[in-house]
């Protein structure tokens, strides 16, 4: 007998995940594909809210998984912003600062600042009213060998961080290096300079009261203006958030 015909799977709109709770920040987190790999991504739905420029960027990806991740992230950002203002998701327009940080077009008169990151199929978005924010998420699978861990550590860790990391071994050391990388990425996004900053001159240390503390260095002259977190991540990932403090202690 011939096997029965397969029933087409209904398109899914992505899978929302519990997002970290950060004071003063709205966080959104999800994955474009269910963890079990089933289902058909709802690309048609995601693409209805995207701009022509975003369509071109999506179509340039060679791998379907990368395209799905990008499209889902744009859909999640646009629909998230529309919960904060009476603007349809497809109507939002964005601009870039001189250093490339994305922002809402001034014509909308919105004080919302945002940051987004995606890695390994997951995406993380932070939205804040009137406060610069940076978020980053990274899959731990990106560093699959001790040699790659050592190369990244040598490139991005400050001396005191390197001393702490050198006391660790194996997976614990790998995860510590990735965690520090995500913190530096989040800070660089928050200040709007990205990879232009020398990461080995950005330093964090653990603190029993505040969890994570940004240290003063030649590159970081205003550490007290920023709160930084390393929230508990989904298994196999590390993530970080950096948010400007409100009021007189925030960025000038």
TrEMBL record:
One CC-aspect GO term: cytosol
Pfam families, from UniProt? ACPS
> Region (Disordered): which ranges?
1-21
Q: Which domain of life is it from?
A: Bacteria
Record bears the keyword Repeat: no
Manganese as a keyword?
Answer: no
For this UniProt record, the keywords arranged alphabetically read as follows:
Transferase
Q: Which residues form the 4'-phosphopantetheinyl transferase domain?
A: 132-215
Could you give a single Gene Ontology term from the biological process aspect? Answer: lysine biosynthetic process via aminoadipic acid
Q: Which GO terms describe its molecular function?
A: holo-[acyl-carrier-protein] synthase activity; magnesium ion binding
Q: Which family does it belong to?
A: Belongs to the P-Pant transferase superfamily. Gsp/Sfp/HetI/AcpT family.
Which named protein is this? 4'-phosphopantetheinyl transferase superfamily protein
Organism of origin: Streptomyces qinzhouensis
């Amino acid at each position: 007998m011939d096997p029965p015909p397969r029933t087409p799977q209904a398109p899914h709109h992505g899978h929302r995940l519990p997002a970290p709770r950060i004071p003063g920040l709205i966080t959104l987190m999800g994955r474009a594909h269910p963890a079990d790999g089933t289902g058909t991504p709802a690309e048609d739905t995601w693409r209805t809210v995207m701009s022509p420029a975003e369509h071109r960027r999506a179509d340039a990806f060679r791998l379907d998984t990368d395209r799905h991740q990008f499209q889902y992230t744009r859909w999640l950002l646009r629909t998230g912003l529309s919960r904060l203002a009476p603007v349809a998701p497809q109507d939002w327009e964005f601009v870039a600062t001189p250093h490339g940080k994305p922002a809402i077009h001034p014509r909308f008169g919105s004080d919302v600042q945002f940051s987004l990151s995606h890695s390994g199929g997951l995406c993380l978005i932070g939205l804040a009213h009137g406060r610069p924010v940076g978020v980053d998420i990274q899959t731990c699978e990106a560093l699959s060998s001790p040699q790659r861990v050592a190369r990244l550590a040598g490139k991005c860790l400050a001396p005191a961080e390197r001393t702490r990391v050198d006391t660790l071994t194996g997976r614990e050391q790998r995860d510590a290096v990735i965690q520090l990388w995500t913190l530096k990425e989040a800070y660089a996004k928050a200040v709007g300079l990205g990879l232009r900053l020398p990461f080995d001159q950005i330093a964090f240390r653990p603190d029993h009261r505040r969890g994570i503390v940004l240290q003063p260095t030649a590159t970081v002259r205003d550490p007290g203006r920023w709160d930084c977190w390393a929230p508990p991540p989904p298994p196999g990932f590390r993530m970080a958030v950096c948010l400007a403090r409100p009021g007189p202690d925030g960025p000038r």
